[in-house]
Amino acid sequence: MTPERAAIVATLQAVPNIGVVHAYERTAADLAKMKQLYYSAAHNQIRGWFIRRVRVREIGLLQPVYLEVTEWQIRGFMSIDDSAGSELVMDSLIEAVRDGLRANNTLTGTVRKLGLLQSGAERGLQLEDFGPYMFGGVLCHGARLALTTTKELTQTGSSTTVGD
Predict the structure, then answer these.
(1) Cis (ω within 30 of 0) for the bond into 132?
(2) CA–CA dist 106, 31 (Å, integer)
(3) Confidence band for 164, pLDDT divided at 50, 70 and 90
(4) Among candidates 3, 4, 26, which has minimal Cα distance to 148?
(5) pTM, two decimal places
(6) Could you give the CA distance from residue 56 to residue 72 in angstroms, rounded to a whole number?
(7) Is the dihedral of CA 68, 128, 131, 12 positive or negative?
């Protein structure tokens, strides 16, 4: 696991009542097993998250330094319980994840920053979709979030600490 992924997982796990957090997308061919992977016993419901790396780009900066821009997808699912206002609970969890990542905007020193370096670029965690999904045979709230990280690399691929 990359240090960036580990830091994203740790940040999510620090959110109170987050549920189960997986470092990668856990899957199972059987719906009952799929449900079990994301089931939070503490909450007696599906309440689970996973992180996926969806794109990596290298951008030339000044020789021998390059920028590595990584796009991450974070997905979260929680059983719907309308009588308990579960949509509002899930929305609060999303905001707590956003707050946690904003507070840890270098992912514990593993990246230069969350987002792109140019002025006016998106920063932090972006909510891309939030709505009802069938997940593991259960009607759930589902959230798709996007996170971009930027770090510097030398030509050998090792991280560097060149300043802004």
Answers:
(1) no
(2) 37
(3) very low
(4) 4
(5) 0.88
(6) 9
(7) positive
